[in-house]
Every structure is written in structure tokens, then in C-alpha cells.
């Protein structure tokens, strides 16, 4: 046999040059967005701003990154400056600083891209050119009207915005989902005005993951939105009520891990409230009896292992440019469009409504690439839209904590740890010792202290792996193990009022928690097994509502009926019979 050719050594630098040549050959050069004056887009050390992900390939080629999330790219100088700030001592932030009004981050001029007018006479190519031109002009308008340093990181992928446009056009009711920990910074008023005033459609706001916040705070946020947006309908939801969790107690430091049990089952309490809101909006135009019967049957089964109600079939919608024009309740079918920013739990909410896994979920932002429709019943369908980061002035650390910016894309996570540590006592929660035996703490010290406790060591130099420690802390905050909640304006001043509010019983019913199980109403609350040695960050059983597993069991709380707390958890269903 002929002797094989000897392999020539190939350096990493040569590999980078090879990949660069390949990208240029295929026309996939990096394209700057909102380039600052005097910046060179190809020089990373310059003041330019680049997209993290490259552009799709030439026309006619496959586009694997067609729906990839795209954000600004920070310069090396900005990264270095933030690292220096992370080494400075922490400054405790006053509790009132956690009270947030959404108007601070969403200005009237900071609008989101809306689909330009179109008709069926346009060809696919003409429509594509028209939308691309519109989106380019939109970005130029943003550049001219705002300083890029003041803007948050928002979605720069036109394909993802196209998914939103189609969902808005097909939906009879728009369901906007927010995380109860950060509702004001996730809700864009421009979308509310567009849906209610221009599209003339009903708008429902879902306060999701209410199991991660105390009941008084949930009630306060509910009334904040009711007063600020009169046309808004609200409902509360959690795909992980109390009976779906194994163990529900807090450890000494306050850092808590929750474990869930079994497979995905229907969250009947939140589903019931969503049904009641939709039924009040639809009236007799669509018969929602099958949806009502499905919830009732599920609750009457007392969450047994097997379901007896058929849930319908799932239909994935193809990504065709031309589709039907909007017709309200077409064919007697109610279409509910689920919209929200990444990691608010849209897909998990749909799974909890269906009572089984029908949509893939993940903690990684941008997991849902294109919209898809799922039939809840024969005449009710849900439309899941990819997570969208709307233009705003939300600071980057807050975007990372609420899941809008991918933690894996962070080049410098220490400033986000600093933001969190100045508002929570992370030293006590993590139960760490100072890695350098000092009395003054910085964000970098916390990362090193956690890395020392967990045994995160760099491979070559055997030093404490600060980056991995920071990454671990941020992922625990995203999962709810470290629960950081913002508060509505004047919450601290009216705290006693919210702790005795009449809506608390309904909130606890949806949470499936009694007053005793809820424990102290402190804001930085989460639930866990109290184990002093934290389990692995990648443990699937420790995830929140963005996991592939969900459970069910028996509820321990009931809704308020006729002015009194009823012991029958099915009382709300009986009222509809």
C-alpha cells in the first residue's frame, strides 16, 4: 500500500487566516452596525460597534444563521475599563433604587420596527427588498436620534422581526409575557399602543414565573400595569406551582435550589385564569367550551398520571412570505399570539397550558427560531413567537440578569456581578470566605471566592478561574436560585398595604402556596432544598420554567370566591357551569 503523506503542523493563527479567507470567498464579511464616527469596522481595538454574529451568506446559499441573535460588540477599551471597575469595592445600593418605572427606559421616539404596508400583488423578491430597505432606514433613524452608548442591546436580525410581524397579523388576541422579576423593563409601551390603537386588537399581559416573587410584590406589579395601561388585560401564571416541586425551604444564606418532579403537566390554576380573560374578550364569537372542559377535567382528575382529554395536534407553520390576510376569528378559531423577550418562559407557558411538551425550550436566548402554531383545542390555537429584545435604554447588566442578553456571549461578566452584588448580599447568600483574607469586597473578589469554593481552577496557571465563577453566579441568578426582583414605584412606602391586599389569595392560589409555605415576604426569595453544598449548575432538575420537564400534583391553596376563602379549589370552574 502506498505510504500516506506526513501531516504538516498547522498553527491556530494559520487556521484563523484560513477561516477568514473562506468567509471573504463566500461573501460573509462582518458588517458594522451604527458605526461611530472615525471607527474602522475591521479593527476590533477601534471605537466601532460590530455584530456578534456574522451576516447570512449570498443569495441562493443555505442560511444557517438566518435567525441568529445579533447584538452590538464592545471594544477592547470598554472591556478593560469595566474590568477595572469590577476590582473596586462594592457600594451598597439603597432599597428605593430597586423601584423602577418603565418610562425611564422606553422613550416615545424609541419605537420598534413595524412591517411596511404590503399586498398580494408584490412578488417575494419585491417584498423582501421593501422590508430590507425599511429596516435599514429604521436603523439609520435610531442612529441619528440616539447615542449608541445609551441604547440597550436589541435585536438586529430582520428575520426575527418578520416573525413578530406575522404573529401580530394572524393573532386575534396578543399575549405579551413578562418575567415577574423584571416586568417594567420588559414591557414596551410602543407595542401596547400599536396593538390597541392601530391594529385594534385585544392585549393581554401575562405576569409569568410568579413563583419566584412574594405574593405582595406580584399584586403590586399587577395594579401598576392596570393603572398605567387601562386597555390592558392581566393574568398571572407559573408553570411551576408549589405542588410541582420537591422540597421548598430556604437555606441559611438565602441561596436556594428548587427541584421539580415528574413530567410536564398542565398548570391548571394559571390556565383557568387565562381562559377566563380570553372568554370575556371573545364572548359568543368563538365557543371556548372545549378549552373550559379540558381544564375542568384536568383539575377534577386531581392531577393523576394519565390524561383523559385529547389535546389536539401541533402544526408547524412554514416560513412562506405570502400568507392569508387577517380575518378576525377566521373559521371560528381563536388565535392567541404569544410574544415576549427571551427567557420569559413563553415556550414553557405553552407546554404548561397544553399539559405536555409540544414546544422545545432552553435557557439559551434565541432558542425558538421561527414562529409555530399549536392547537390547544379544535378552535383555539396558540402561536409561539421567537423572543425579541425591543429597543430600550435598559442597562446591559440588567439585560443579562433578565435573560435578554446571552451569558455565553459575555466578554466581561464582572460588571453584571457587581450590579447584582450591590443590591443583594451575595457574600452571605453564597456563604463564601474572602479569597485574599481582606475585609473589603469587590465583584472580582466574589467571583474568586465562589470559584475557590467550587474548585474552579485554570488549566495552565492553576489560578482561580474568575470568569467561570462569574458565569456560574449569573446562571444561578437567571435560574432563580439567586432571586433578584425589581419593584414598582413607591412599593416600600406602601409595603404594609400590599401585604394585606385582597389579591394575595388569588396569587397564592396560582402559586399553589399557603401563607405558611410562602414564609417571609422578603423580596430576594426563592425556594430550594437548603443544601449547603450547591449542586451542579448544569443539573437539569434545578432549572426553572425554561426546562424540558414539568410536573403536577395536588394544590394546597384555593381561590377567593364570594368574598371568602373557599376550601374547594375547583370553585371557579363551578361558577361557569
Automatic annotation (TrEMBL):
SUPFAM superfamilies: P-loop containing nucleoside triphosphate hydrolases (SSF52540)
Pfam short name (any one): MMR_HSR1
Biased composition (Low complexity): 526-535
Location of the CP-type G domain: 161-391
Region of interest called Disordered, as start-end residue ranges on this chain: 1-65, 520-577
Gene3D superfamilies: P-loop containing nucleotide triphosphate hydrolases
CDD domains referenced in this protein's UniProt entry, alphabetically: HSR1_MMR1
Keywords linked to the UniProt accession: Coiled coil, GTP-binding, Nucleotide-binding, Phosphoprotein
Coiled-coil intervals, chain numbering: 69-96
This protein's record includes keyword ATP-binding: no
Biased composition (Basic residues): 22-31
Single GO MF annotation: GTP binding
Role according to the record: Possible regulatory or functional link with the histocompatibility cluster.
Protein name (record): Guanine nucleotide-binding protein-like 1
Origin species: Rhynchophorus ferrugineus
